[in-house]
Write a structure and sequence with these properties.
This protein is mainly alpha-helical. Helices cover about 85% and strands about 0% of the residues.
Length: about 210
């Protein structure tokens, strides 16, 4: 029974569809919250999630056809550079604004924390599990999941500070803690994007060498 389920899971790429659906739900939820609370942070996270959702779909279809594999890493790098836009906006908002935020229901913060830690655990497991795999799509997805998980952890930090600190003025030290976390996420995204570009040229070189030998 277990093997049957695993075969169906792999045959129909259910993992891909589940990840796209979950990203769409999370992105839409944050989009709604951004309009309800006038939160730039929530809006940026929603845009970021939509970019990653579309990125997963593009990468999935590129991997379906071998002739597109030579642009796979370059396309993935472009997606990450695009995702830097909403990430950069959160940095600007942190340095210039004192945005307050509070969940409409107190229990939501605990659910958000559980979601963030589960997402980070899955991302770390994916990086370790797919380290030696030859499946390029899994490697790229693992890297993107790690970036997404770190941004989610920042959003958890953002919501916790504003939920449990009821004052209207955020202390300077707290603001710079947020700023430091954001820089870590941006640097991680940038370095992985550069790594993808390097891999892109390595793939092109390998394809060229294969053509010469044949």
């Amino acid at each position: 029974m277990k093997d049957k389920i695993l075969n169906l899971y792999n045959k129909y790429d259910l993992g891909f569809f589940m990840s796209v659906i979950s990203l769409f739900i999370i992105a839409t939820m944050h989009l709604i919250l951004s309009f309800m609370s006038f939160s730039w942070y929530m809006l940026c996270y929603a845009i970021f999630s939509y970019i990653f959702m579309l990125g997963r779909i593009i990468i999935y279809f590129l991997c379906k056809n071998n002739k597109y594999l030579k642009i796979l890493y370059f396309t993935s790098a472009l997606i990450l550079f695009l995702a830097l836009t909403p990430l950069s906006i959160t940095v600007v908002k942190t340095l210039t604004d004192k945005e307050l935020y509070e969940f409409y229901f107190d229990w939501m913060i605990y659910g958000y924390a559980l979601y963030a830690f589960i997402k980070l655990s899955i991302a770390i497991y994916g990086i370790i599990h797919n380290k030696g795999t030859k499946n390029e799509r899994k490697k790229i997805y693992s890297s993107m999941s790690l970036i997404s998980a770190t941004f989610t952890m920042f959003m958890l930090e953002f919501t916790m500070i504003r939920t449990f600190d009821k004052s209207e003025v955020l202390y300077v030290s707290v603001k710079y803690i947020e700023f430091s976390f954001q820089i870590i996420v941006i640097l991680l995204t940038f370095l992985i994007a550069i790594n993808f570009i390097i891999k892109h040229f390595l793939v092109l070189k390998r394809i060229k060498n294969d053509e010469i030998t044949t």
